[in-house]
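A common beginner's mistake is to predict each chain separately and then try to dock the pieces by hand. The better habit, illustrated here, is to supply every component at once so that their relative placement is modeled jointly.
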Amino acid sequence: MSNSTPTHFSFFPEMLAGETADVYFLRTREVLTREGIDPIVTMEFFPGRAGVLCGIREACEFLKLALGEVELTIEAMDEGARIEPKQVALRLAGRYLAFGIYETALLGMLSQSTGWATAARLCVEAAGPIPVYSFGARHVHPRVAPILDYAAIVGGCVSGSTPAGSRLAGRDPAGTMPHTLILIIGDTVAAAEAFDRSMPPEVPRTVLVDTFHDEAEESVRVAAALGAHLHSVRLDTPAERGGVTVDLVREVRARLDLAFGRESGSRGVGIFVSGGLTPERLRQFRDSGVEIAGFGVGSAIAGAPPIDFTADIKAIGGHPVAKRGRIPGITPNPSLHPVVW
Amino acid sequence: MSNSTPTHFSFFPEMLAGETADVYFLRTREVLTREGIDPIVTMEFFPGRAGVLCGIREACEFLKLALGEVELTIEAMDEGARIEPKQVALRLAGRYLAFGIYETALLGMLSQSTGWATAARLCVEAAGPIPVYSFGARHVHPRVAPILDYAAIVGGCVSGSTPAGSRLAGRDPAGTMPHTLILIIGDTVAAAEAFDRSMPPEVPRTVLVDTFHDEAEESVRVAAALGAHLHSVRLDTPAERGGVTVDLVREVRARLDLAFGRESGSRGVGIFVSGGLTPERLRQFRDSGVEIAGFGVGSAIAGAPPIDFTADIKAIGGHPVAKRGRIPGITPNPSLHPVVW
Amino acid sequence: MSNSTPTHFSFFPEMLAGETADVYFLRTREVLTREGIDPIVTMEFFPGRAGVLCGIREACEFLKLALGEVELTIEAMDEGARIEPKQVALRLAGRYLAFGIYETALLGMLSQSTGWATAARLCVEAAGPIPVYSFGARHVHPRVAPILDYAAIVGGCVSGSTPAGSRLAGRDPAGTMPHTLILIIGDTVAAAEAFDRSMPPEVPRTVLVDTFHDEAEESVRVAAALGAHLHSVRLDTPAERGGVTVDLVREVRARLDLAFGRESGSRGVGIFVSGGLTPERLRQFRDSGVEIAGFGVGSAIAGAPPIDFTADIKAIGGHPVAKRGRIPGITPNPSLHPVVW
Amino acid sequence: MSNSTPTHFSFFPEMLAGETADVYFLRTREVLTREGIDPIVTMEFFPGRAGVLCGIREACEFLKLALGEVELTIEAMDEGARIEPKQVALRLAGRYLAFGIYETALLGMLSQSTGWATAARLCVEAAGPIPVYSFGARHVHPRVAPILDYAAIVGGCVSGSTPAGSRLAGRDPAGTMPHTLILIIGDTVAAAEAFDRSMPPEVPRTVLVDTFHDEAEESVRVAAALGAHLHSVRLDTPAERGGVTVDLVREVRARLDLAFGRESGSRGVGIFVSGGLTPERLRQFRDSGVEIAGFGVGSAIAGAPPIDFTADIKAIGGHPVAKRGRIPGITPNPSLHPVVW
Amino acid sequence: MSNSTPTHFSFFPEMLAGETADVYFLRTREVLTREGIDPIVTMEFFPGRAGVLCGIREACEFLKLALGEVELTIEAMDEGARIEPKQVALRLAGRYLAFGIYETALLGMLSQSTGWATAARLCVEAAGPIPVYSFGARHVHPRVAPILDYAAIVGGCVSGSTPAGSRLAGRDPAGTMPHTLILIIGDTVAAAEAFDRSMPPEVPRTVLVDTFHDEAEESVRVAAALGAHLHSVRLDTPAERGGVTVDLVREVRARLDLAFGRESGSRGVGIFVSGGLTPERLRQFRDSGVEIAGFGVGSAIAGAPPIDFTADIKAIGGHPVAKRGRIPGITPNPSLHPVVW
Amino acid sequence: MSNSTPTHFSFFPEMLAGETADVYFLRTREVLTREGIDPIVTMEFFPGRAGVLCGIREACEFLKLALGEVELTIEAMDEGARIEPKQVALRLAGRYLAFGIYETALLGMLSQSTGWATAARLCVEAAGPIPVYSFGARHVHPRVAPILDYAAIVGGCVSGSTPAGSRLAGRDPAGTMPHTLILIIGDTVAAAEAFDRSMPPEVPRTVLVDTFHDEAEESVRVAAALGAHLHSVRLDTPAERGGVTVDLVREVRARLDLAFGRESGSRGVGIFVSGGLTPERLRQFRDSGVEIAGFGVGSAIAGAPPIDFTADIKAIGGHPVAKRGRIPGITPNPSLHPVVW
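With all components supplied together, the output reads:
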């Protein structure tokens, strides 16, 4: 995976206009404005569960764009840091009316991105040294597919499947070939050859081998046809056929070795695994010792629930306050550092 | 809740450009284009689990915008319909290159919206005749907060908290008053009076009563101060103080009755409940028989996992096909009907 | 399955000589003989768990052979009857020394056969109208493989895989073709054709289709090659490839229909299922409604534990007795009837 | 237990004639013969679960008898060895038609004997230094009762209850006295005295003490009557009276000590325990520290399910092959060694 | 069981002096006295769990004795009534200082007696038509043993084992004979005969038969010795010997029938069961249909936890009040009725 | 807590008269007296479960009072000692008629006191260094409330709430102020001031703060009003308001610190916790590290079931005996020592 300069987050007009805010923040703005009240407040954002913090970079870019020249003191933990329940991830201090309507948006960015990054981290830890790719774009709304891929990379994935998302993190998108291509061309080998003809050299030739025939059989056919051009085969066996298992990977490797010789040929062909992978299954593959070139993970990351964040006003005009149930005043956290722009 | 004309979905340029697609669809487009292959294919979209179908309206608006004059036959089930596992929700037939790169986006719209609508339906069923509002915008990325509110309304919620989302469904956004307003003004009654002064008459005066003092005590104070202007009080007691319980609602009602008389005064004051509500807790409230004006539900809807959809090519050039593990040919579904534009 | 006259059970010399008895019965014979004691006793045999009684026919044939002209009163329940815990299945009355050393053998016949017949019944009930075959000979010692098949047929199986066992019940043995034949011939279609050439017409042409290629693919190839000669295909997919599932059967049927037309050709080809079938899995297949020609069940019958029987002396010289913990005297059971020879 | 020379296994004509084989192996022989195909194949036998390997000795004796002068290369692991899942226990190489019809018989010998030996090992390990006897002949068909006792001894039992089985392993059969003897003689002490009179000196006087009276009471009576002739008492209390427990053994020992003095008399009387013993109960007895002379185990060994074995052709004419789902070619196993005859 | 006039409860001086009260009530009396405050208050007593109300009679006798001429309005539910969680069992209205220090004592009477009566009811319901006796005095402190027996009778027991307790409920105490008597006399039959000689005719001759010999054996011996004098035998087999089971009762009955004839003799001998009985075991005996003369239940009643009661002030000087968390004012309960003395 | 001289146990006439005994012991006394039998017997008392032994002191005081000059040898373990199942806690040797009727009473004292002391120990261990008080008098009958408090102190509690019970152990009773006092005075601060005026200086001023207003709010008000007189606040939040939690304690501390400064004022105010405390919850508080002045535990001690004791005659006239199921003769226990008076 090549690394390039990460791109900036883009923000849609309705977010900046407060149209995605809880409406009661808009009403609060109206009330306070009419009452002429606008104190300096300190607001803290913290999660309810532990995880891998993500969304801080986007939140800061968002505040910068939304507030422009307005003065606001920002302290934040690092993107990708480990965060504990109730640990303060972000602390804002400034005139309330300057940023009050963005509370919903900031919470949402942090909650969902942290949920995804945390789930990705669990997968990456389970996979050990084998690289993990975020293949979950299809499970989330396309508006947030790039956010998902970015968060998955913050959580430890090598890359994601969407161009927009991978580039947010300065990575190239990753992908192989869909069943669609093979079905339309009508034969796995023919599809592989067409792919090989069309793609620029930097795209790895990873051929999906479960569309028409037995995986082991197709792997040998494809390896024979593409020769040294072949980077790897991808196993994505559907649940209806037992899914991808350790035994299947082991057999495909054995039949490739049998066909091409372990040393001269087959070793050069990687086996890429996808389809319903969870941390438990990733750990099984890893613990089995079978040689795997990479994992494509979808639902286990994309379907992770948000890690809910809460925002509390902890000081007004310099005096400690809190609603009932919370501790008044600033919560100490040495991991916070000033954010400048 | 007033009903107005629903607004249209908006689509961001990167979605239309395929930047949120799995990159292998972009590569497939490139391969097929170079090979000169572009058959008429029939593609079916179906979910893996049962639920309340949502996202169909957005998907059709998206295709209309993206394809323009290109010919495509669309059959779809109704937005909001009950859908079974593997039941076909959407069937497209046309030249593959016209719509192939949008597979990821269409799957994502259906998966996430159906997940949310289904979770909302569970809450609405649990709540019985008591209205449920979607208050989960803060748990999801602001890009999709409007999609969440729309899906929650399709699932049966009366309205959502975001202006953008509620209006997609032709509803007014719903909200009360945040702890922030009360903390900044410094007293619940003073905040309630300021709110009453500032808001237009159509906004219900629902006052949050757990910020500074005991909920029952504040409810009586607020009811005394606002009199007939008061629509309801909102209980949002944090988990640190035991959360909102049936007993608490019952006691607040009893103390209001004691203070103002059951018939003349207190009956007119509703009690609105929010905070960590789940279908189980909604059912407890409902079964208890306590009188409740409405529920605000957040995580139980917003944190619902997507209901994953899959897209399969089932015919090419009129001939039944399928990858291994699937049944070749069109899957019968009498609930599908043609979509025209 | 044709029905012929059942053959008789054969008994090995060591059984008749008491060499398979618990040695303490041999010693008891020695003690009583030397003491000159040989009363008329009544002995009852009953199971500890409910089940389908089996072994009675063999027990009676054994006693007839072993005792010859010696007088013994036998009462027994019917082979294949439903039996309850502690219900008396067999009652013997006669001089103790005439039959005492056979207690172990009689208990063993009843315990193991009843265990197998009961397990078979569970499978047959789960399979509903679809015929079940006993394919478990490989899991038990060859000495008892015929007993297993006989008991399975008593429990409701149509037939078993061993000639000796099936004929005990007056049935023809059932079998298809092993992986061995296909591996040695080297191709499924070639093996099917050789089988077709060699077998007499009454042997159904059931071809195993999971040896080399994808099951659906091979089914179509075999059906094309054998045409009307083909009776059915057998799916025996190993656990390493997900086992046989409802989805797989459904897909094979669909692809056969697609290839040959539902009416004209494919309907005539049955699908036979084997491999790790349990009552739970049999019920899934049956409940799914997929069309299945038969099930081959192995471990679920052959691996069933014995249903232990106990023999109690309940009367001596006409007087009720029993050891501590048991009720003295004859246990009433209207299902018993005299056995004559 | 004295050790003598083990006897040979006997094989019934129907086993040698293939009458206990799965009929499809007989048909395969017919097809291949008619087609004139008979390659040299390598076949491997391996279990699905871990255990104590048993049946190898019988399998080799069987092949020797069945094949006579025909050439066959046999490699096998040791009888009684610990075996892992999928580890090769037996490898045959030779002309297929020479041994193909015996696959069912060989699998059955290995599966059932290994199941029994493994269960016996669990009991022996649980019992620690206290000897375990196989008393399960009554739970299995008399045809295999000797096989059961032999396998139990391979698994670690000191001996079995059947003459035929114990002698296969070169042991004397073990037994005490049945309830029958006592019931017929009518008194425990009288039965013990008759037994003592009749039995040769090498048979230990182990008297069953739960038939008529309380176990502790009878033990004292029997010990008084037989004096130094008494080897041990056997407790076999039925489930209806609470079964044998640690407390009961402890009390019988205490009452014997009280009656005869711990040093001078009672220590010489052993306590033998039987009745529903499982590894868990054996471990309780052992962990309790009560002094026990031996355990008689029935169902826990005899009712153990087979450990299923599978036979795979892994090479034909020297070339690696395998059906789908298995790794082609010889599976390495340094524990195999050639078997010569 | 004969019924006589119930005796009155006795109250120890330290209870009347407030020495068993929570000391803070004594301090409250001191504070209010010094401050000159003594309003008329209404106090309600209610349980946290459902049950069979007991302790009301004692509470009222206690208040009568403690308050003498002081005016107090008492409303109460009936002793033995079914009571629901939070249902008011007792309501007091009067000058607080008159009864305030007795809150602890009243709560304790109600909590513990209701706990015991409720547990007794569960046993009685499980036993169906078979009478249940409270034999739990040995499990509780002798100060409360009579209270236990009284509560058990309120819950449905026929009688208890203590004279003091049974007479509180107007019943004669019930008992058979302890192991002690038999051990000291040295023989069950001799003890039975001595008992028969000494006891007045109205005491039933129920003989314990598990002390020295097998229960069935002793039952027959005792029945032979006492003849028509024998009322019943008691089985109390200890856990070390398997406890009393349905099978044991059935066997004892069968052996009595065998010895004396079902019609002429044995039918007249009852079987009384005790030892570790729980509602579950009582139900097993009852469902088995074996004939049982009575059950003696100890721990299952005596070890039942209290059903905690709470006392709340709900009105002061006629005005509804309540602490936070409770509903102010009188709680309606039509089952309450005035108590007069 | 000051320590003074423990008071003696008092025994009610009905206990001494045998009116609380199982009636069969009274009958045994009558039989043996009439038969002229009164051997010297040795009786052992032992528990069925492990625990903290309590009741020994009372049992010995009781025997001393009941037997007076009659000779009896007593051996006992120490009050408060750890005891194992079946370990002998008390051994009596003497003429049976002298003490036989007290078996029930002695068992009851030991069973219930040991049950309570054991439960108290679990709480004390869970609470670690934080003192635990027995506040369970209201859950048990007032006759045994002092016994409960004494046993709780033996188990490790600092003191109990009843004067009679605490003084048995030589401790002063502990208590704060009930809701009743605050409800009657009508305001928490006013009640605290009245309490402060009336109580002698050695009574700590611990003010209950959950009656009318939010706990944190009241704590600050009370601390402001009483100043240095205030010893602590007590949190007893009812389950209807979430109970007392670690978060609540932490918040009350924080708001006190905020109001009065951590060093100068708030540190001097303790926080006392009560209400539904169990060992699990005590451990949570302790593990959280929040500063707590003490715990008041009720049901978790008072509702503990008795630890049942059994009494066995193990020798008569110096000869070992035992009923069936028990080991005859004295059970060795080096922890027993002679009790003299």
